[in-house]
Amino acid sequence: MTSFVLDAAxxxxxxxxxxxxxxxxxxxxxxxxxxxEGTAALDDATHxxxxxxxxxxxxxxxxxxxFKRLTKLGFPRRFPIVQFPNLPLIIxxxxxxxxxxxxxxxxxYTASTSYLAMTIWAYEELAHGVNWFRHLLGVAYAIIMxxxxxxxxxx
Length: 155
What we know:
Elements: H1 21-37, H2 59-71, E1 74-75, E2 82-83, H3 87-99, H4 105-128, H5 132-154
Antiparallel strand pairs: 1-2
Helix pairs in contact: 3-4, 4-5
């Protein structure tokens, strides 16, 4: 299996055995904190039972960590304007496309799922965007979603 480095920050290794689920959650939380603080908090993280560094990411936890790393990619690197879609945006796109193929109450459900996911994405960009452009993008889409929902309620 080929691995590649997306940035210089150290990655937790979550190869089995990683112990109980609470240990995994603690490692994932520690990873999030180190990203937010910009520090390498996982340098001294050891496996609680064996007293050693866990090896390589695998399984569902590894897949989730890879997805989280992928959603951190942006272009240009110093001032991300374009980023890989995060989960709410992916759900909004899929629900919107599914709405094209269904009719009746199923169309209503897919449209409302798409609107809700886009609203969540807009809020996340507004509240937690990486720069002023992403915050502005969140405000614009929040306004667009309010107008679209109001228009859908009138129809």
